[in-house]
Amino acid sequence: MRFISGHEVFPLIDPMFYVFYVNEGSLKALEVSVALGSVHKLQCVIEEITRVPVAEQALLVSGGEGLQSEKQVSYYQGAGTESNPLFLFRKLYKEDGQGIELANNDELYTLCSGLYDELHVLDSSTISRPLITRYCDAGRLGLKVAERCLQLCARLVQDHQLLHQGWLALISNLYDSRTQIEKKSERFLSRYERLKTMKIKAETLLQDFDNVLRTLQQIKIPSALLSNSYKLQGSSKIAEECTLYEYIARADPQNSLEEMSEQTSDTEYKQVVSNMRYVSEEVSNPEIRNIRGINTRLTQLDAMFHSKEQETKVLKDLCFAVSQSAVDSQSTKDIVLSQREKMFKVKKLIEQMQKMGKAFQQSKIELLNNIRTRLRGWILQVYDRLHAANNQIILFEEKYIALRNRLDIIRQVKESPIMFATALTECLRRSVLQPEFESWFTSFMEKSVALVTEETSVREVFKQKLGRHFLKQLFPGMLDNFPNFAPNGVAHFDQNLPPVTPADLRTLRQAVPCLANLLKVTDPFIYQRLSVRDPRMASSSQMTPPILKREESFYTT
């Protein structure tokens, strides 16, 4: 059996996976195996059962979190139980206002009309012993009808509770969605302010831009430089000498800076601000957000149901007494009259239960219509506004990034003449420095090796002599080895420099005189810059340092 608020409802085969379809106000029991797959597979099963297309489904947990189709159902722990089902909303819903009411009224009518008809026949029948047996059967039928009516009422109470829970889940989701868009809008507003600064920078960059373009047209890129660039890119394109302007123009984007600036106008800003203000006002309105009197309604329903549960105990006793009647010392007439009296009370109690069921049903329809009106009204409008604001922010960010990138390209284009001249000069400088440094390093390495070899040899001879002499105790620490600091080599560098020659520099200097101050290459002077002077020579440059050979300064026999 399953229960809601302590009330017995329907016997169902467990375990099941439960989804409450809010638009229809009905609880759907699915095979528990759907919880083992992805949310998308669950949505496909829901589509088969409810005819709600996957694209129109919005699945929420009780806290308002929306299910993501790519995730596993098991990711949403605790959801899908009878007391905590998933809540299904159809985004585009066209309801049939009478469908649910008629279906439930028919169910209640069918349950009770059979009993009433039977009692009418029995009450009109002549008293006889067979009539006693028929009243016994009617008593058992009355008990069955009463239990069924009570179950239907319990289900209606449960539907009220789940409708309220589903509504709260939707409101929670709406708050979360608004919070997410608000965070995006904060970044949007920040970028919008930065956009103003970017436009000012763009105006500054575009000043004197025509002169830059003319300079680019005067700069010719050496064919050897182009060939080397194409080769490194893996291109088989034949290199033909071209100007720097032509080289840049080949990758010219579709939109100019001015066009991009116009596309990011104040329109998006005003629309986003307007939509977010509307959403904030609507969500903050308690008259729209809250269902007035829902808590009182639920409390009253529960109290009424509890009262009928107590009356059902009396009804069960009456039905049991009727169904257990037997002929003994009493006359047949007395038994039948007693049965009729008891069944009359049973009928009155069932009529009251039927009346309560209709009231519960009407209450559910009112609540459901209230929620449906909100769903197709302000809820739909608020989500549409949030969706519109989100799309506007995304579109703005795309334009913002494109403008920022375009601005960077313009900056690079404006810097291109100076950068080209600087790179050409640097390339030639390094081509001179590299062989001179390698020459110096080779000389340094050879001298270092010679020094290490000589010093190591001298120390080894001394070590052998002092090591076997009793005076070694007076000279501790004299047996250290000389460090082998001589390098083995230097890492290769500047092996793949672009093929730039001094002639290229002279050609550019003649073509663009305004860049002449950047087109100067000085000798690296590696030997001079890396030469080491004895610090003692600085203080007494006039003195000639004494030359004392080691073999003349130390004799041991």
TrEMBL record:
**Gene Ontology MF annotations:** molecular adaptor activity; protein kinase binding
Q: Which GO terms describe its biological process?
A: autophagosome assembly; autophagy of mitochondrion; glycophagy; piecemeal microautophagy of the nucleus; reticulophagy; ribophagy
A single GO CC term, please?
phagophore assembly site membrane
Protein name, entry field: Uncharacterized protein
Question: What organism does this protein naturally occur in?
Answer: Wuchereria bancrofti
